[in-house]
From TrEMBL:
The lineage of its organism: Bacteria, Bacillati, Actinomycetota, Actinomycetes, Pseudonocardiales. InterPro entries: STAS_dom, STAS_dom_sf. Pfam families: STAS (PF01740). PROSITE patterns: STAS. Residues 11-88 form the STAS domain. This is STAS domain-containing protein.
Amino acid sequence: MSEPPKHPPVMSVGVAVEEGCAVAVVAGEIDMATAPEMIAAVQAVIEDQPAAVLVDLAAVTFFASAGVHALVVLHDLAQRHSVPVGLVHSEIVGHVLTISSLPELLDTYPTRRMALDALTG
């Protein structure tokens, strides 16, 4: 019997350190099913209390209201831990953030380079 075809994950989160900043790279779809996984991954990074955290959503292809909620949760967590957080995002995410007024709450940057310079400068 053959195995069913494997489907790529709907969302992935990878974490690395760049220039002393913890970078969480999120790719794929963020919705009600995947937002808790994103929260858990970035929460673990924040709780390690790095000098700063960059959440890179540039490779996100779908961003539902659960993603907005996730960013608010992570922002609040970062404030409680006194960890600065920056955000880089795709055009899709940017549209949702603009509608939700979150750019007023979050430090967003047009590029990863600009975010790293601001967070580590």
